[in-house]
Amino acid sequence: MKSRDQEYRELFMAEALEYYDAMSRHLSELERNPQDTEALNELFRLMHNLKANARAMGFVDMGEVAHKMETLFGQIRGQERTFTGSLVQLTFGAVDTLGNMIRAVGAGQESADAHVLLDNLDRLIRGEEPVQAAPEQTTEEADADAGRKLELSDLVYIPVKKLDNLLNLVGELVIDRDRILTLAAELGNAALQTTAQHLFRISDDLQYSVMDVRLVGAGVLLNKFPRVVRDVAAAENKQVELTLAGQDVQIDRNVLQLITDALLHIVRNGVSHGLEDAATRVAAGKPAVGQLRISALTERDDVLIQIQDDGRGIDTEAVRQKAIRKGVITAEAAALLDEEGVWMLLFEAGFSMAEKITDISGRGVGLDVVKLAIDSLGGQLRVSSELGKGTMFTLVLPTSIAVKGALLVELDARAYAVPLLHTDTVLALHADEIFAVGGLLMTRVQEENVPLVPLRQLLYVEGDEPLPRATRADLPADDTLHQVLVVSYNNRRLGLIVDRFLRQQNIVVKPLSKPLDTIDLFGGVTLLGSGQLCLVLDVPALTRLFLTKRP
Amino acid sequence: MNKRILIVDDSFYMRTMLKNMLTDAGYDVVGEAANGQQALEMAVATTPDLITLDVILPDNTGLDVLKGIRQQQPDAKVVMCSAVGQETIVNEAIENGALAYIVKPFSEERVLEIVGGALQGDGPRA
Amino acid sequence: MADSSAAPGSRRAAPVAPEAVVQLIVFRLGDEDYGIRIEQVKEVTVTPEVVKMPKTPPFIKGIANLRGDIIAIVDLEERFQLRPAGRPVPDFSYTLAVEAADYTLGLMVREVPRPLTIPVSLIEPAPEFVQDSGQRDKYLEGIAKLPDSEGVIIVLDMAKLLTPSEIMRLPGRVEPPAAKADEAPNAPTPPEKP
């Protein structure tokens, strides 16, 4: 993980540069048309945001300039003054100064002193004339200015969200591509097939390129652990030497993000349960200082993260007995498990090896979060251990994953995920906002009639017969609000009536395996944080089903 | 169950910072909205326990959004986020049912204190 | 999990005689004993939480998360119409994870399955007249008559049962109910791994 400070700095820069560009644009618009209230409102808002963000980052001068500019635009908006005269020139100058300040932050430099500008802005706010209407520039400075404006940075700041969105779109493209390939093969048109093949290669390259952009070195996460290990070792009164390896191994930032907690748990567990204290180690003929090694390596398409200690190893029989005692598994089933099967019980919910609750590993959550995180990524977890010699945990992770934004809705106490790509809007409708036309329930959304259908009917009514004709009489007579998720596909909107909305969440979609992959209503399945399975609805298929079954 | 919070702010930077602060403190940030329209939709969709609402937004002022949310859900708990010098708007927001306000730039302790207080049903405060 | 773990000691139990033996996992369906060759069984576990899946035949109980694999859980008693009338689906059951060529399927059974080693010669091809239990006989490898009147074990051939179109087929119906089988090759590929 990048440090928070670094992350904030990058976000700040990305947004500040956007703001700067927009300010310059709106300022020109306002100069052309001083009555342009939209430009004025935007300038006010952008100054307000830049002020707040700059102050939060501790950039005092930038915050001050933006603050005074906000005040000025506030006065113009309040019609206390007009966008004319010396004010115009000074605000252009001030926006340039803001741009310089932002670029200086990006380059890690100090920005020039701004007190002359600040004083002049104060004068304008008080209704006085600025002392030097335009700070005079030497010719060289003006040339330097002109030259600088043509230089564009080789780096752009991209919020991860935008990349996620891009990858989602590529994902959709790939699905359509595969359909086109199949159709081309069915039609047997040679030219179409050649084009489809070309499309195949290009979209493949595109997909890899987009995924490549999101790869970071595993070090951004691993480098956090010296501090973690030191703290846990100190609290547990143990001596630990940590070695790291493979910080350069490339992995998707989102994968790292999703396993951060899991890795934290394994490492804490390794120090507090895996490694013995110095006295015990010496008594066992081991060096007093315990060894802990965290390494990342690439194996085919996967990235392995291994956590290895030279501690006491796992006592298989003790784990087996404890699992039975804790009700994690029945005695019969436990008897069938081999050594490795028993070790995996460590990661079951309800199992926690420590008998005494410590600060470090007894936080009410156990190693089961590790399994949940890995499962949700479609990864694997391996354990190997030798009594008295040590333990190694291996996380097998995909190099890259597609994270989709989704809205979770509830139906009959079950969560379903709808990809945000296909969600349009959500509505809470009173019965009188719903009307019936031709056996269909409808409502008005932005000047358009949108059909409504209970999701329950689409999912659970069997057979190919049309749905029953709906009338308003079907709606409950009380004044409960009807929760409607409007989805859209091919510019066609459809309102799905659900029980309630749960939340927006990023999900990793796993494809359904055979034989259920023939049911096209579901784009896949995802594991929620609780370990609960959640079906992902396929909006195109739902829309098609509705069209064939509409009464 | 963790308290669920919806963040409304047009700055991605500001949302991220708030989200980190709240998530670290054990709240669930159930959604983020960047403008008034999104805010109204997300408030319905996510039924949060609390909404943090920026006073200045691209399409509506925060005040209009506050009124819209309170109309949809009269019991919604809303905390305004403002900067110094916006006391008039803030006062109007409090009159329109906002529980408290946080002044930008904010410190983590302040945010958590105010959010915690608002969730426990304290009256208007800053 | 290793095969041997499900049948501890079975290797030692193998007779010295060169006679070929077969290891089975034996479980009850209705009031009969059924067996599957152990190499077709991946794992025996307590049935995890099963999520109901719309648009599937009723004998598909839903999907479950088995160590990160999302698998379909099938109730063979219902599939073969073996459940005596009035006996409900148990709250607590075991699942046999069985492996087909390219996917895993969970078979839900009510009692804990047990390993058993028998000589191959005990398995006799199924008699033609066993035609009364849905389509069960189509998937039989044979019937093992245990010595000393210890009953019979109906040995299922998973390879035959586990083709996707067979598993989705309702008893007594020829057409797959999902009617989308022709679309299977077009199933969207996940964008994660091209």
TrEMBL record, chain B:
Taxonomic superkingdom: Bacteria
The keyword Phosphoprotein belongs to this UniProt entry's keyword annotation: yes
InterPro entries: Bact_response_regulator, CheY-like_superfamily, Sig_transdc_resp-reg_receiver
PROSITE patterns given in the database record: RESPONSE_REGULATORY (PS50110)
A Pfam family this chain is assigned to: Response_reg
Ranges for domain Response regulatory: 4-119
Gene Ontology process terms (BP): phosphorelay signal transduction system
Residue numbers bearing the 4-aspartylphosphate modification: 54
Protein name in the entry: Response regulator
Cited SMART domains: REC
Keyword tags: Phosphoprotein, Two-component regulatory system
